[in-house]
Amino acid sequence: MPRPKANAKNMPAFKKAPERRSAKAVPRLLGMKDIVPSEYRYFSAVSNKAASLAELYSFNAIKTPAIESADLYKKSTRHNNDKELYSLDCEKGENGVLRPELTQGILRAYIENNFSELPQPVRLYSIGSVFRKEKMQTGRYRESNQFNLEVIGEDKPMAEALLIAAAYNFFQDLQANFQIQINSLGKADCRKEYIGKLNSFYKERGRRSKLCNNCKKYLGKNMMALLDCKEDACQHLLHEAPQIADCLSDESRNHFAKVLEYLDELGIPYNFNPYLVRGLSYYNDTVFEFWPLNDEGVASSKLALAGGGRYDNLVESLGGRPTPSVGLAIGLERVVAKVKDRLTLPNFKEEVIFLAQLGDQAKIKSLILFEELRRAGFNVRQSFSTDSLKNQMEEATRLNAKVSLILGKKEVMDETIMLRDMESGVQETVAFKKIKDKLEKKVNRKEGVIYG
Ligand code: HAM
After folding, report:
1. Residue 148 beta carbon below 6 angstroms from any ligand 1 atom
2. Residue bearing the CA closest to ligand 1, atom 8
3. What residues contact 388, with CB distance under 8 A and at least 6 apart?
4. What is the pLDDT of residue 21?
5. pTM of this structure
6. CATH number, domain with residue 106
7. Same domain, 43 and 99
8. Which residue of 63, 224, 378, 400 has the fewest CB atoms within a 10 Å radius of its CB?
9. Residue 181 and residue 308 in one domain
10. Do 104 and 138 reside in the same domain of the chain?
């Protein structure tokens, strides 16, 4: 009998929440998202891809706490940072917050663990959740997961090019449709001059009134925030606004030209976007984002898939030595939403071995064998809670197992195991000791790590 093709349809059905919930049911908090098992598979596949790519590009994994000191974020303000942070009741004198980004925690760990003594640059990656009390919109959650890459201690433009190349290849592998937006913000002096120009531009008659209410509040206080506004009216005004490129120093101009030259050499397409500023204040020189393309091939800034840039002063401002650095973060929920339909789940390619047992002795022996096979990387499944062999074999069929191993009283006595090829139905008796070698020839092994 031909094996049914594995796809999302033959995954276990998870019951939908009843339409009418009891008044006692406690709902999810606003802006929070459940990653239910049917979606978790995609989430896990994307996270695994991210981790293996990071390792390939010589990044080392780091995990930092979800709760950090609020002081860590003072120097890296966003437009609405104070409102966005979730504050926590910590020990006396401690002002804790749920991290809104991974970057600062990684830099704190870099400083605290004296990573500056290591050969530079230090390349670190991390996958974890971030928390932002954001205005709610589709694709914008208050808890979301990021894949973060930081190259700490590198001032050369090659660092940006390699980082962008890593993210570019990640999205290419996932067959996502996207466009890279890139700009240079220059150094503080360039920005001061530019902000003056922006002030004059927005003060001109008729412009102020067209801005959204939020941007009106930023006028004169945070002019760069106006460029980052996603409201259509503000975006419309942008087209006539002055460009920061006209204020760049020779040093910044040369640095940026080199980044673009490397991208050209690597064959990585990009869109020079003179109004890309990113919502974070710690960047200097290169900034970039990965924008999704819709079915018509139009790029949209609203649900950026990733963003990053150079931050040469942040480590020092957090108490470390002057350490030029560059980094980026990819939003995993947004990537999953974008690529889910075309993603081939690696899990589905791994062939399932089903381990069936009959009788107490067989169950014990199966448990030991199960662990052995699992550790050897086989995608082994079981149903230890079921005694009926018929039910177990039905489960093996449902899981689309390539082979089933059946262990009964007789097999335990003879130190053998029955191997059934689920496609042909052919069974053979194999010596227990030889089962791993036999399976290696018959089924694919599992690869990669599963992230929680
Ligand atoms: P960010 O642009 O704030 O940068 O976030 C990076 C990515 O996380 C975004 O492009 C988006 O895909 C995702 N993301 C952000 N906020 C949300 C949200 N509310 N819901 C869903 N997804 C979201 C940073 O966080 C910087 N730390 C990046 C960086 C690393 N710069 C240097 N190193």
Report:
1. yes
2. 331
3. none
4. 66
5. 0.81
6. 3.30.930.10
7. yes
8. 63
9. yes
10. yes
Segments of 383-437 assigned E as strands: 403-407, 416-421, 427-431
d(CA 214, CA 72): 26
- Give residue-wise pLDDT tens across range 261-294: 999 999 999 999 999 998 778 999 999 999 999 9
Name the residue among 348, 410, 368 with its Cα closest to residue 382. Answer: 368
pLDDT confidence bin for 137, thresholds 50/70/90: confident
Tell me the residue range of the domain where 423 lies.
348-442
367 and 320 together in one domain: no
Residue 114 DSSP code: T
Ligand 1 pocket member 216 (CB < 6 A): no
Within-domain flag for 14: no
Residues 113 and 150 in one domain: yes
Q: Give the tens place of pLDDT for each residue, 332-343.
A: 999 999 988 877
How far apart CA 352 and CA 373 sit, in angstroms, is: 11
For residues 279 and 382, state if they share a domain. Answer: no
Q: Is 327 in the pocket of ligand 1 (CB under 6 A)?
A: yes
Q: What is the CATH number of the domain that holds 404?
A: 3.40.50.800
Number of domains, the chain: 2
Q: Which two tokens stand for residue 346?
A: 């690696």
Cβ atoms of 250 and 273 closer than 8 Å:
no
Q: Which atom of ligand 1 is nearest to the CA of 104?
A: 27
Assign 137 to helix, strand or coil. strand
Residue 379 lies in a domain: yes
According to DSSP, the residues that pair with 60 across neighbouring strands are 124
Residue 300 neighbours by CB distance under 10 Å: 12
Q: Which of 77, 99, 144, 315 to mutate to test the pocket of ligand 1 (most atoms within 8 A of CB)?
A: 144
Q: Omega before 121 cis (within 30°)?
A: yes
Quick one: 357 and 291 in the same domain?
Answer: no
As a whole number, mean pLDDT of residues 353-361 equals 93
> Do 313 and 427 sit in the same domain of this protein?
no
